[in-house]
Structures are given as structure tokens and as C-alpha cells.
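> call design_seq(struct)
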């Protein structure tokens, strides 16, 4: 009986371990369900600056893909999970990074998105601390939903907004090549 119990405990532990992946100090699940859609981890990477881990990022898709253009163009539910692993990521720095990211993603032409970018920036109105988790989810026919630590922050409409937002990490000039390649499952 004791051996049977130990086998069950070991099996449960093993299945729990395989249900997630460690990226630096962050742990990301292999599967998520957003908007009623099951998504699988496409890949994950670490955003670093000067050898300091800042945040882990995971890309969740319905079907795996290594093609950033196809992912950006897709009109289907998908998500990016950002797990903050450093105290160096602050509210002020996140806002600046997001603004800079939109600027790069749109080649400086943010005019059509400015109102929605400002609405999105408001999602970072509270302090950001180590171990915060942001889920940025594009839900087909609804828009981009932002969640912080399980609390819904709001929805920004528009597939064009999703395209520019996801381009921050997956575009030609991403936040970092390492996190882009990680999210695409290339490393």
C-alpha cells in the first residue's frame, strides 16, 4: 500500500512538473485558456539588459508557428504572458518601453493608434513589482484584453492595435531578439 501511495504521489508530481516550463526564475504554463480558447505555449524567452533578467515572455497560440509575419497577420485568439522577474522593471520604465515599442512597430506613425495606446498605457497605472504577471490576450472579434495578476484591466478594440502591440515582441525591431526567438520557439 505504501509503494502504491508513493507511486501516486510521484506520478502527480511528475505531471505537475511537465505542465509548465521554467524560463530563468519564471515559471510559465504550457497551456492556457483565454476567451474560451485553448492556447499552447509556442515558445518563451527572457528579456535581459546588461546580463540582468527583466521579464520572461511566453507566446501562446492555437497552433505552433515559427513565422512572425503569419502570427502578426493571424486573426485568431493568441496571448503574450509577461512574468516580471526583476525589481528593475518599474511602472515608469514599462510605460516608456511600451511607448517606444509602439513607435518602432509603427515606424513612428502612431497617430491612428494614439488614443488606444494611451488607454493601454493606463493599464500600467499601478506600481509594477517583481513577480507581477501580465497577460496580453488578443481575442478574435473583441480586441486585446489585458490582465495583471489575474485581474482584468480592460479591453482595447481593433486588430490593427493587436498587430502593432504584438509587433513590439515579434516585429523586425523587437524589444529583444532573444525574447523574439524564444517566443517563436527558435532557441
Amino acid at each position: 500500500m505504501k509503494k502504491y501511495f508513493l507511486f501516486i504521489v510521484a506520478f502527480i508530481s511528475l505531471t505537475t512538473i511537465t505542465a509548465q516550463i521554467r524560463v530563468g526564475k519564471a515559471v510559465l504554463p504550457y497551456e492556457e485558456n483565454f476567451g474560451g480558447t485553448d492556447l499552447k505555449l509556442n515558445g518563451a524567452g527572457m528579456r535581459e539588459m546588461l546580463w540582468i533578467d527583466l521579464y520572461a515572455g511566453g507566446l501562446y497560440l492555437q497552433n505552433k508557428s515559427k513565422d512572425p509575419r503569419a502570427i502578426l497577420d493571424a486573426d485568431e485568439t493568441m496571448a503574450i504572458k509577461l512574468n516580471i522577474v526583476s525589481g528593475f522593471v518599474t511602472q515608469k520604465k514599462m510605460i516608456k518601453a511600451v511607448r517606444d515599442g509602439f513607435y518602432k512597430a509603427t515606424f513612428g506613425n502612431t497617430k491612428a493608434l494614439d488614443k488606444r495606446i494611451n488607454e493601454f498605457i493606463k493599464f500600467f497605472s499601478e506600481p509594477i513589482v517583481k513577480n507581477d504577471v501580465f497577460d496580453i490576450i488578443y481575442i478574435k472579434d473583441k480586441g486585446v484584453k489585458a490582465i495583471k495578476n489575474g485581474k482584468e484591466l480592460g479591453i482595447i478594440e481593433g486588430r490593427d492595435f493587436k498587430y502593432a502591440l504584438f509587433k513590439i515582441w515579434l516585429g523586425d525591431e523587437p524589444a529583444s531578439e532573444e525574447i523574439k526567438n524564444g517566443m517563436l520557439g527558435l532557441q
